[in-house]
Design brief:
Layout: H1 4-8, E1 17-18, E2 21-22, E3 24-25, H2 36-48, H3 59-79, E4 87-90, H4 93-108, E5 114-118, H5 127-136, E6 139-143, H6 153-159, E7 164-170, H7 182-191, E8 195-199, H8 211-214, E9 218-222, E10 233-237, H9 239-242, E11 255-259, E12 262-265, H10 279-295, H11 297-316, E13 321-324, E14 335-340, H12 345-353, E15 357-358, E16 360-362, H13 367-372, E17 378-382, H14 389-400
Parallel strand pairs: 3-15, 5-6, 5-7, 7-8, 8-9
Antiparallel strand pairs: 1-2, 4-10, 9-10, 11-12, 13-14, 14-17, 16-17
């Protein structure tokens, strides 16, 4: 097993200094840093293979197509999809959710139908459904935060009825580190006849994940959350569901036949991928998947949990600091949110940045969740495989300086 020091050496940015101090990067729930092998994979595509995919018979086009489709197959295996065709490439998790809304929900939901969304959703998994509700006269219902601030399948049963066609929720809260019982929630939704869209941006690549075991109908996720390039994302969908959907963006690469009156489309996944894709980004994502697999998602999860527990215990012992979310010994992710008395989250974030420590400050695009807890903003630290106990202690020292 590779040492933590060896793993840290894979990430060139960790050698940076901020304000004359070593960078302590603790904003991994927002985006993760990239190992050199991923940076090299992106550069290698542009240096030696750059061509447009699915459109040419020349060598560069063929190589680019092979790289794109190899990446699709690699990501499909990584999440446990039945087939590579169930992976639709997008720009990010947000676009993946919009794809499901535009191409499935708009076609299948009618006035009077309902969609259930949880209170802890990132705005990216709330705004599309608000749009649908306005445009289609669909009712938006909210699954409340349950006991111990987790979503509860029993609450889901109370919110749903025969009009509910879709349930959508986050696998893990990006702001509080809450890990939801996804399998139980999905099973409860299916028992009432609804489809499920799972936002897995915070879990895929950070812990073991099996799409078949969870059985969600859609799963949205991104490369940049798991050490891959920005601008590459995916929507996993069950093939039987994807086959019922029409593209919401039509263009080059999606057409089977066309005349002056209309067109027919290719089969999945290509009918959903209009225009030139970010082939370099997807090639880099495939290398990131290899990198994560080499370390092991179980190890990554255990490491982040241990660092979060160390931070939680340190913060809870300090008067003037309030911590939110699950406790150190509970099932959780490597995300910790807190506030310092008489200090705004932005002030804390700037003060820590002056010490070279990068954290997040604000509502983390989860205003409904924080409002339900009586909060406006928090300071958020989030951990990845390259973070250390010494960095946790540096954060605690930075907090001490503010008390």
């Amino acid at each position: 097993m590779r040492s933590l020091a060896d793993i840290r050496s894979d990430f060139p940015i960790l050698a940076r200094e901020i304000a004359g101090r070593p960078l302590v990067y603790l904003d991994n729930a927002s985006t993760t840093q990239k190992p050199a092998c991923v940076i090299d994979a992106v550069a290698d595509y542009y240096r030696g293979h750059c061509g447009n995919v699915h459109r040419g018979v020349h060598t560069l086009s063929i190589e680019s197509t092979d790289m794109l489709e190899s990446a699709r197959a690699r990501i499909a295996r990584f999440i446990g999809a039945r087939d590579a065709s169930e992976i639709i490439f997008t720009r990010n998790t947000t676009e993946s959710i919009h794809l499901a809304m535009h191409s499935w929900a708009r076609a299948h939901l009618r006035p009077g139908d309902s969609v259930v969304v949880s209170e802890m959703e990132h705005h990216s998994n709330l705004l599309p459904w608000q749009t649908l509700a306005r445009e289609r006269n669909v009712t938006l219902r909210f699954l409340p935060i349950g006991a111990r601030e987790r979503l509860d399948p029993r609450d889901l049963d109370r919110v749903m009825d025969d009009t509910t066609k879709l349930v959508t929720f986050t696998h893990a809260s990006n702001s509080l580190g809450i890990l939801n019982p996804a399998a139980e929630l999905i099973r409860a939704a299916h028992d009432r006849g609804a489809l499920v869209l799972l936002d897995a941006a915070q879990t895929i690549g950070h812990m073991p994940f099996d799409a078949q075991e969870l059985d969600a109908d859609f799963v949205a996720f991104s490369a940049h959350k798991m050490h891959g390039p920005a601008g590459a994302g995916a929507l996993y969908g069950k093939r039987a569901v994807l086959d019922t959907m029409e593209p919401f963006i039509a263009g080059g690469g999606t057409i089977a036949n066309i005349d002056r009156t209309g067109a027919s489309f290719l089969s999945v996944p290509h009918k959903f991928e209009a225009g030139t894709p970010d082939t370099a980004g997807f090639a880099g994502w495939a290398r990131a998947v290899d990198y994560v697999d080499e370390i092991g998602t179980a190890r990554i999860h255990e490491h982040a949990h241990a660092l979060a527990a160390r931070l939680l215990r340190g913060l809870e012992s300090r008067e003037g600091v309030t911590v939110y979310g699950p406790g150190a010994d509970e099932e959780r992710t490597g995300v910790v949110s807190f506030n310092v008395a008489n200090r705004s989250s932005e002030d804390v974030g700037r003060a820590l940045d002056a010490r070279g420590i990068a954290v997040r400050a604000g509502d983390h695009c989860t205003a409904l969740l924080l409002r339900a807890l009586g909060l406006g903003a928090t300071v958020r630290a989030s951990f990845a495989i390259y973070n250390t106990e010494e960095e946790v202690d540096a954060l605690l020292e930075g907090v001490n300086a503010l008390l």
